[in-house]
Write a structure and sequence with these properties.
The complex is a heterodimer. Chain A is mainly beta. Helices cover 0% and strands 47% of the residues of chain A. Chain B is mostly beta strands. The chains are: A mainly beta, B mainly beta. At the A-B interface, β5 and β10 of A face β5, β9 and β10 of B.
């Protein structure tokens, strides 16, 4: 593994189903983030984690939950998917949560909720 | 909330110069980033400005004026591979990034 990986690459999901998007980084970065990207809206922060064991809410957290049991992994869970959660989801990480640290993005998961 | 504006689309000819403007109104300021995103791919880091002035990195330069809440990304000697979306992002008081909607640049032969 080099950098950040996400799984699955894409998924079609029935409304009401539970889904976990996986994110793993091997850079030993302390901070990790989940964004969704929708046409015309840009990237919006869903949840973040400044360090293992802590999480926080971003701009659009409703309907999503995260956990950060260790440094490398930061899964995003949709408890009961709805069509408005159709989007491209990007995981990112940075060395620290400080404002000057560059965020590095994973390849993304394209999710369609029907 | 944060307000970050950039043009939706720009078109330019191969070999030309294009300037992508970004204006912002945020709660505090801890730096401004530019990212490049090719269609279907992840955003990749281009530049970071925290002090006023011009930062040059090869064919790409980024400028910042904190007093005006303004930045631009300058792409010189355009190549076909520069066709992509360019995202302006501001780090504000809480050190989280707020992104603009992105500017899609199309380079024509």
């Amino acid at each position: 593994i080099a950098g950040i990986t996400q799984a699955p690459t894409s998924q079609i999901l029935a409304a009401g189903r539970r889904m976990t998007l996986r994110c793993t980084q091997d850079m030993r970065h302390n901070a990790m983030y989940w964004y969704r990207q929708d046409l015309g809206l840009g990237l919006r922060l869903i949840h973040y984690s400044n360090t293992a064991g802590t999480t926080g809410k971003g701009e659009v957290p409703d309907g999503y939950s995260v956990s950060r049991a260790n440094t490398d992994d930061f899964p995003l869970t949709l408890a009961s998917a709805v069509p408005s959660q159709t989007s491209v989801y990007f995981c990112a990480s940075s060395r620290t949560s400080g404002g000057a640290d560059t965020q590095y993005f994973g390849p993304g998961t394209r999710l369609t909720v029907l | 909330g944060q307000n970050i504006d950039q043009p939706t689309e720009m078109t330019a000819t191969e070999g030309a110069i294009v300037q992508i403007n970004c204006t912002y109104q945020t709660s505090g300021f801890n730096g401004l980033f530019w990212y490049q995103q090719h269609a279907g791919e992840a955003p990749t880091f281009l530049s970071y400005n925290v002090l006023d002035g011009l930062e040059e990195k090869g064919r790409f330069s980024s400028f910042l004026s904190r007093s005006k809440g303004y930045s631009y990304l300058l792409l010189k000697e355009l190549q076909m591979k520069d066709s992509a979306s360019y995202l302006c992002a501001v780090s504000s008081n809480d050190y989280k990034l707020s992104f603009g909607a992105g500017t899609t640049v199309t380079v024509r032969a």
